[in-house]
Structures are given as structure tokens and as C-alpha cells.
């Protein structure tokens, strides 16, 4: 697996879905994800889902095979040749970026529909092979990756910029180009993601997650997740069928 792949998700439908939730929760995500899927009709395609600024809730579809490779924020241009700002809140067929090479890849992946490990390995290797300079990093790339690390650890935007020796304005510009989100929005999404699935007192969770108070958590959660924390925990979400 390449160092650019932060997370791997695999779903192979064996027909035993009774009792599973029929809602697919897609939380906001500062990362870009490459997805290979097969439909029940046997069609195969590879998609690129850009950074998601708000949560989405969809009715689940049965797919014989689904593989997701989540790319580390800030690494998208190295692998796909486009910045995160060109992908934010979009789902783009890989053919738009790679042309016929993406069509060939989708066809080759169908040979591994019953072998998820090989499908993941093939998709990861093809992504790595497209990276123009897998060892080198530009100064901007180093800056963005360092800021991502700082913000993910709870630093404020001003702190991240100060430690990097640049202005907040400059950091914001290069960060948006690389990641697709502003540093502030990146931090907000990460903070909301950190409370998903947690149980207990919302007041305590708010403090532990770095919110000012419970009302701050509720307001930010509702803005990004589109429902209140209580409604989300109870499964009361606005499901779409598209």
C-alpha cells in the first residue's frame, strides 16, 4: 500500500444484508476518495469523490463489489493530477482525468470482483504509478502537509501559519488549492468527525472535542451534518434516493 492511501474500505455483497441499516451515511470529509464499483448489471467504473463539505444520507444500493481508497488530504494532485479545489463536493468519473487508462483499469478490476485484496492492490498500484515524482515534494506541499498535521492536532489556523512562517492569507490560498477546503473549514470538519459515534454527555464530549461549550457543538454539528447530534444518534436523518 502506498503512503498516500490513508484508509481502505471494501464492501462485497454476499446477499446477507438482513438487519443492516438501509441508510448510507456519508459524513463530511476533507479527503478525496477513489471508488471502484460494480453494479448488479455487471457494469464497472472508477469514480473520484472530492472533499465533502456537508454530510449526505442516501438509500443503500446493492453492489456486488465496492472498493474505496481514501487519499490523504494534500496528496491529491500527486496522484490524480488535479488539486482538491477542482474536486470539492463533486463526483467525477476517473475517465475525465485519465481517459482510456481509467476504462482499462475498470475492466481489469472486474477480474478481481471476488478477491477484494487483489482489487485494492491493483487500484493502489495504478494510482501510485501515476504520481509524477513519488519521492519529491514541493515547498507548498510541505507547507500544506505540515498545516494539516497541526490542524488535525487541534492547532488554530493562526498558530499553524505562524509556525510555518507564513501569513494566514497565504496559508489559506495554498491550502484551498491542495485540499479543496480552507484551513478553518478543514478543522471544523475534523472536529465534527471526531464526535461521530461517541456516547455520553454532550457537554463532556464538547469539551473533549475542543468546542467552547455544548451549544457550540450543536450549532456546528447541525451546520455540517444537517441534523442535530441527538437526531443523528437516533437515526433521524434526511435520506435521498439518488
Automatic annotation (TrEMBL):
The keyword Transcription regulation applies. It holds the Pfam family HTH_18. Keywords: DNA-binding, Transcription, Transcription regulation. GO terms for molecular function: DNA-binding transcription factor activity; sequence-specific DNA binding. InterPro entries: AraC_XylS_family_regulators (IPR050204), HTH_AraC (IPR018060). It comes from the Bacteria. This is AraC-like DNA-binding protein. It comes from Kribbella voronezhensis.
